[in-house]
Structures are given as C-alpha cells and as structure tokens.
Here is the input.
Amino acid sequence: IAGQNNIAIAEGNIGGKKNSRITRLTMSDPVTSQTKYYVLIYDCGTDSSVASDISDQYTALIQNGYSKIIGLRDVYPTLIAEKGKLEKGLRYSLRGKDSAYIILAVMEIEAWFMAEWNHFSKVDTRLTLTAIQTALGFNPEIDDMEERPHPSEDLDNIYKCVSRSYKKKKKQVNTIVDSLDYEFLYLEVVKSVPSFGKFVSHVDDFIKL
Here is the structure.
C-alpha cells in the first residue's frame, strides 16, 4: 500500500515517565523525488499514553509539517458499556487540536485481525473456520468481532489450537500482518467492523490531501 502511493514511513517509540517522555526514531524509509507522503508512526507503549503523547507532541508535529495526527488505541480493558465515556474523555483531552484524532479499536485491534479470517489458514492450514468454531464456539466469518470482550485472548486461544500462541509481541503481530488479505480488508472488513472502517476512512482522507 505504501509503495503504491509513494509513501515513506518512519517508525519510532515514545517512552519514559509522565512529564519526561522521550521520543526515539528506530527506522525511516528514504525520502526521494517520488515521495508524495511521509508517515511517522510512534509506538506509545501503552494505550493510556496515546492521548497525552499526542497532546504533548502536537505543536511540534504541526510545526514540522504534519497535516494529520491519528492515534490508535484499544477500548479494552475499559468495558464496552463505558466506551462512550472513554471517547468523550479522549475528545476533551484533544480539544483545540483540530488535526488530531483518536480511533478506538473495539475491543482491541486483534478484532480487526480476526475479522480478516482468511489469514488463519495462511498461518497454519489447520486453522479452518470449522476448527475454530468447534474448539472455541464462535465463527470469525459470521460473528461480530467487535462484540468479543477480549480479542487478543481469543486470538491466543485460536493459535493454541495448533500449539502456537499470541502475546501481542511485535514478531507475532508482523506474522499476522504479513498474512492479511488487504483487498478483503478494504472491501469487506471496513463494512463489518465499524472501528476499522473509521480508521481506513482517516487514512484514505490523508492520501487524498
């Protein structure tokens, strides 16, 4: 996707204690004459730091030419019944910062992975939808993955069916990402998973700028 749209991507992380957060760049694509967009991705370490890190970095990012700032965090461990209250609090924390947005993955970003159910058999051919439903009692193709209370736990249980595990580790996430069907994500999952659709809409708006 990045290559098709001439996007250069840089990655970094933000760490440290509150009021003394440190940013560190870990990789960056080269910027060439063909580069149309530059995307900087920061890992804030914890969901609770996303809004405050955006608020702290906002002025510097805008001054450095960034046109849109998108934060992504899980709803979990907040209960789904408290999602509205969480959203209201996040909007308030970013008041006056018109180019900043926070997308809530309901309940976790792993719900997006499960909704792209084609990838399971790519990770392991034994992970069929029938096998998942028989072992765990739900079907990622049919059921609403945003209604799962703890998607990362579901994903771990799915992989345990074939003696693997999922613990939100970067290597494990990359294995899943490499197996995803991006056409299916953009054509189908955007409709079946509203939080993912909202995220894609923001990304599409950025590319159209």
Summary: Residues 7-105 form one domain.
